Amino acid sequence: MTLPxxxxxxxxxxxxxxxxxxxxxxxxxxxxxxxxxxxxxxxGAVRMAADAALRVGAGLVxxxxxxxxADLLNLTRPEIMCHGIESFDELAPLLEKATVIIVGPxxxxxAWAKACLSQIIINNxxxxxxxxxxxxxxxxxxxxxxxxxLTPHPLEAARLLQCDQSYIQQDRLNAxxxxxxxxxxxxxxxxxxxxxxxxxxxxxxxxxxNPGMSTxxxxxxxxxVIGGLVAQQLPLDIAAKLGVLVHALAGDSAAEKGERGLIAxxxxxxxxxxxxx
Length: 277
Prior knowledge:
ten-stranded mixed sheet
């Protein structure tokens, strides 16, 4: 395969997509993000994704999770609307209200997780951000779609392509393009030099970020950032590229105090700073 020229992501390229808000703005103008996930014992992932979506400017953010978590998740973030769901009948009206759905943070691979993902894919044509175990479940039953952004790390990418992780890392650009060919939509191949591949645009690489970001929850923050930008009516490819860049910039800002000991939620205040830059 002949590989195309790769674009390096720079914040100046995206200024037009985050204009100053009009004086008469209201929350309905900036979209409604629904985060679906958080199997028992994994509630933190959906909370981080939801926080990130708020911090990049989504107008409304909801979480659909296990009922055991629903009353706890917004105790320290009352702006998030939390819903306990155990069946598709409970999930369906939440999907109806959403502008964009993030599925996967803390989802795991239980029967509940499989039912959530299956119903979202079958019954929904709204924009999707697919992350974490939603990717692992997708790898078991591959599908092609144009309305989603897939955000695998190298091991998840290897599962999606049914190959060894070393194959992904040996030629990351080729791997990202193969993922796009097989699954469609927009591919965000995470890692050092995160790549974004989509239709009708050159592949893009982010050269920012740092080793301190190699810690739990960073992917959940990224999925929330991208979903929050999609909610604000950015095209999927632009939201993916800008989301990757803002996430990396926030990580570098947070790492000014040192890379070791950096945690995912350290990025949250810097996300707000960079989307207003």
